[in-house]
Amino acid sequence: MSDNCIFCKIARGDIPSRKVYEDDELFAFHDINPVAPVHFLLIPKLHLVSLAEADDSHAALLGKMLTLAPKLAKEQGLDNGFRTVINTGKGGGQEVFHLHVHIIGGGNIPPMVKRS
């Protein structure tokens, strides 16, 4: 974990959060600025800047994140589907430079890209 990263501080318990899940490798918590009735983040405790920084050594961790996301979504009441978003890098809209997956649902979520 990084001393200066806000998500590392949340995972350590230095900053309070509304925890959804925690184990030795992962931490999930509700977003402080939700865009839908259910909006939480799933992060590795390992400080990994972004998905672009991941390599083969992170394959098991990434797999665990993606298989845990639907379980947590269902536990949060998202039985009818949900959206997962991983913003990667500044150009991809990433604001906190610690890998995180947004799990979003439970309302009218606008499409990410307008269709013509």
Topology at a glance:
Blueprint: H1 6-12, E1 19-22, E2 26-30, E3 38-44, H2 59-75, E4 83-85, E5 101-105
Antiparallel strand pairs: 1-2, 2-3, 3-5, 4-5
Taking Cα atoms only, what radius of gyration do you get, to the nearest Å?
Answer: 14 Å
Number of helices: 2
Q: How large is the share of residues in beta strands?
A: 15-25%
Proportion of helical residues: 10-25%
| Spatial shape | globular
Biggest sheet descriptor: 5 strands, antiparallel
Based on DSSP secondary structure assignment, what is the total number of beta strands?
A: 5
What is the topology, as strand order, of the major beta sheet?
1-2-3-5-4
Uncertain stretches of 5 or more adjacent residues: none
Q: pLDDT average, as an integer?
A: 93
Distance between the termini: 44 Å
Order of helices and strands: HEEEHEE
Class of secondary structure makeup: alpha+beta
Please describe what this structure looks like.
With 116 residues, this protein is α+β, with helices and mostly antiparallel strands. The chain contains two helices and five strands, in the order H-E-E-E-H-E-E. It has a five-stranded antiparallel β-sheet with strand order 1-2-3-5-4, with helices on one face. A hairpin with a 3-residue loop joins strand 1 and strand 2 (26-30). The protein starts with 5 loop residues before the first helix and ends in an 11-residue tail after the last strand.
